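R.M. (postdoc): so does anyone remember the format we settled on? I'll just put the structure tokens first.
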């Protein structure tokens, strides 16, 4: 039975070059094309994704904005971030508590249910297990809320500045690596094409 790489060869015949270029989709340079239709052309040049370039530009803008802020503006920003963090953790805890309450209510209904036969006993156990594993442990969220409440607005501002710098470094490195991968892929396909002339 032919594979996706040999189907065209088996059905209609193919030149060596066509077959080789089709098989190239299974290798590093063209691996992202392996699920594309076999007649989708392999590009002459691969381009890096623009994701890291955009993220890097955004991180640089954020860092510049923070650097231009006065001490009072940074403090206000830290206060805003603190309020948002606390509200976010409280919302998370409230949602988990509401979900847990629904699970507890259902658990009591399942516990009161009498299976119609011995064959249904495992089913009841299964329902109870599913409810149990679905329960949220809010301990971690409560600890995160306590940490959010304990941090000062200045700590929030300092962390935001540090994160902007970290983001710049991360996206710059990823952009460089993505650019190199695109160049390597382009070179691989170029060498393959030249070998097939």
């Amino acid at each position: 039975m032919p594979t996706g790489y040999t189907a065209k060869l088996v059905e209609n015949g193919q030149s060596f070059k066509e077959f080789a270029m089709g098989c190239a989709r299974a290798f590093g340079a063209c691996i992202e094309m392996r699920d594309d239709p076999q007649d989708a052309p392999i590009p002459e040049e691969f381009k890096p994704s623009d994701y890291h370039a955009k993220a890097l530009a955004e991180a640089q803008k954020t860092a510049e904005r923070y650097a231009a802020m006065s001490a009072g503006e940074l403090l206000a920003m830290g206060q805003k971030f603190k309020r948002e963090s606390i509200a976010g953790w409280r919302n998370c805890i409230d949602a988990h508590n509401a979900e847990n309450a629904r699970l507890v209510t259902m658990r009591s209904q399942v516990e009161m249910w009498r299976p119609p036969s011995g064959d249904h006993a495992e089913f009841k156990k299964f329902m109870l297990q599913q409810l149990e594993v679905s329960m949220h442990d809010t301990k971690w969220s409560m600890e995160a809320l306590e940490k959010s409440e304990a941090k000062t607005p200045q700590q929030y501002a300092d962390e935001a500045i540090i994160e902007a710098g970290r983001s710049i470094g991360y996206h710059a490195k990823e952009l460089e690596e993505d650019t190199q991968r695109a160049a390597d892929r382009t070179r691989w396909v170029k060498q393959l094409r030249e070998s097939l002339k």
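R.M.: ...and that's the designed sequence above, right after the tokens. Also worth knowing: The chain has seven helices and no strands. Residues 153-195 form the longest helix (43 residues).
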